[in-house]
Amino acid sequence: MVVLNKIYTRTGDAGQTALGDGTRVSKTSARVAAYGTVDELNATLGMARLHATGDMAEALARIQNDLFDLGADLCRPDMERDAEAEYTPLRILPAQVDRLESEIDAMNADLEPLRSFILPGGSALSAHLHLCRTVARRAERQTVALAALEGINESALRYLNRVSDWLFVAGRIANDSGRADVLWVPGLTR
């Protein structure tokens, strides 16, 4: 259980922060950038949820919870030492990636195939979901950069790749199942 009774600690005042294993690193480290952007993605999803109802709102809530798991995964380096941890570290599981894929397939089943790229917009929810998608792609790029330097859980990277796909398809669903998509018109203003 998490207990937060004091919000400021002053331990980061010199530009360092603690990882999940207690290691202190610079706040500019690749690991902190990766999980920090996952946190930003979670915040943008919270904004999107303000416009969502029903199944979409429930799915976004599940993803937000997964993103906290993902942040916990990324903030704890050295997976080889997980067995030595005082508690079992949270790691993204392949089943979480599989769930996203199943949901993408279900949402995409009734959509007409795209014949153009989509401009972010249409409904407020769709516009927010497209913003979330771009933040997810940035989090993915930063996690790839981290993986080039240190070991990470491969399922974490797969999850980020899949969640951006999920957000794209969800954006189409939020636009009246694609009927209100705003399509790119190449060379429109030439």
From TrEMBL:
Residues of the signal peptide: none
Protein's UniProt keywords contain Cytoplasm: yes
Catalytic activity from the UniProt record: 2 cob(II)alamin + reduced [electron-transfer flavoprotein] + 2 ATP = 2 adenosylcob(III)alamin + 2 triphosphate + oxidized [electron-transfer flavoprotein] + 3 H(+); 2 cob(II)yrinate a,c diamide + reduced [electron-transfer flavoprotein] + 2 ATP = 2 adenosylcob(III)yrinate a,c-diamide + 2 triphosphate + oxidized [electron-transfer flavoprotein] + 3 H(+)
Top-level taxonomic group: Bacteria
Major enzyme class: transferase
Keyword tags: ATP-binding, Cobalamin biosynthesis, Cytoplasm, Nucleotide-binding, Transferase
Localization annotation: Cytoplasm
Family: Belongs to the Cob(I)alamin adenosyltransferase family.
NCBIfam families tied to this protein: PduO_Nterm
Record-given protein name: Corrinoid adenosyltransferase
